[in-house]
Design brief:
It is a single chain. The termini are far apart. The chain is globular, with a radius of gyration of 19 Å. It has one domain. The longest helix is centred in the middle third of the chain and has 49 residues. About 55% of the residues lie in helices and about 0% in strands. The protein is an all-alpha fold. Strands 1-2 form a two-stranded antiparallel ribbon. α1 packs across α8 and α2 packs across α3. The chain is built from 11 helices and 2 strands, in the order αααααααααααββ.
Amino acid sequence: MTVATTPTQLKPSWSFIVVLIAIHTGALFALLPSNFSWTAVGLALFLHWVTGGLGITLGWHRMLTHRSFKTPKWLEYFLAFCGSLACEGGVIWWVGLHRNHHLHSDTERDQHNSNKGFWWSHIGWMMYETPAASEVEKLTKDLSSDPFYRFLDNYFFPIQIAFGLLLFALGSWPFVVWGIFVRLVFVYHCTWFVNSATHQFGYRTYACEDRSTNCWWVALLTYGEGWHNNHHAFPQSARHGLQWWEIDTTWMLVRFLKFIGLAQKVRLADPKNLVANDNV
């Protein structure tokens, strides 16, 4: 019999709590007129796509976690680096926890089990040292053996600091406030909505053994990740938006990469058999 784990039984993750408060506080400095410029706003939006779209959605999620397609090693490393700039933890840690989520979705062993409520699945689970972290090593042997991924996993935070210094040199504090703090907050919550909103709101096309849903507004914010029920039905598919109205800009990018010869072994869902195949 599985014993339910409650927050009172878990040890708080003070490092995450402190960093989270600091980043959200830093974003508030965008309210100061001296820190506003349209160039800085444009930079934040561009970096949201680079780090959240190319990095997290395309790179860390569809390419590394689910191996939905393959790219030349230089492009794989570039996309992984973009994901590290999202500062969502180390790449090995992130991939391992996401693989664990798919193995135990919406059960007690799922770190952001949506049955515990919206707040828990959105952000609450990260405020504690999750037992699921013990599963990361055995779930990521394909990454942990690579020195480059170990480097990104160990030094993602110093990389972010170095990136902030670069932005300061290019555009002073407005670039730092918008390009680091505002952008990180935006990327964070967009990513977290996939854990929370797409297990609470929307419609279900497939009868998965979890609470995953297809949520259009999350799909818009996350470059196609909001078609989450489709994704849970076909985890290895590079395409998440399976209906004509389910816009999936990340899938469009995968198709473009394949067209120019930079994506191979692209895997797609077969709704008739509820399996993934290797044909486009």
